[in-house]
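FORM 7B: Structural annotation worksheet

SECTION A. Query
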Amino acid sequence: MENGVDFDFFAPERAPEDPRLAARQYLLFCGTLDDFPNEQGIAEFARNIFPQLRQREPALELWIVGRNPTPRILALSAIPGVEVAGTVDDVRPYYRYAHATVVPLSIARGIQNKVLESLAMDKPVLASPAVCQTFGGSLPEGVRCCRTAEDYAAPPAGKDIRRSAKQRFSWKKNLAVLERAVAALEREP
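SECTION B. Predicted structure
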């Protein structure tokens, strides 16, 4: 049984407009920022990969959004082009205007909600091999496995990302597996 996402809430057309974000070219990382895998992954990305991407595209920014930014995360704002927004009222505008979402975790257990939210918002995801492994043998449309700066720099691919994600990560469809299993247990003597 796979995870799901609320496609009604995470809908591009329902995301509030934000002219400040619309005018920018940025990659987005969204997650709880005092979670060690998130903190470690985005810190390594911001220090080692992002500067190489910014050399290629000087206007490119990296926005880091999420609850509980640690001092280590807050210090990343000293890197040119890195913005630490921290806690925000609504993450959807950040997804809406992002060029792509980055999920550069070296430790990943279970399907990452941040990936599903991005796909629901019709945004490509640039993900580490550890994150990609959580999807088994079948990466969702719009997710690219990235090992190097060149992988992260390549233009994000994917058509109909949201439609494809809806087919695979609908709560109704995925919870039906659990409902059938419970029904089968009820029939056992």
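SECTION C. Observations
The CA atoms of residues 8 and 15 lie 10 Å apart. The chain has nine helices and six strands.

SECTION D. Sign-off
Analyst initials: ____
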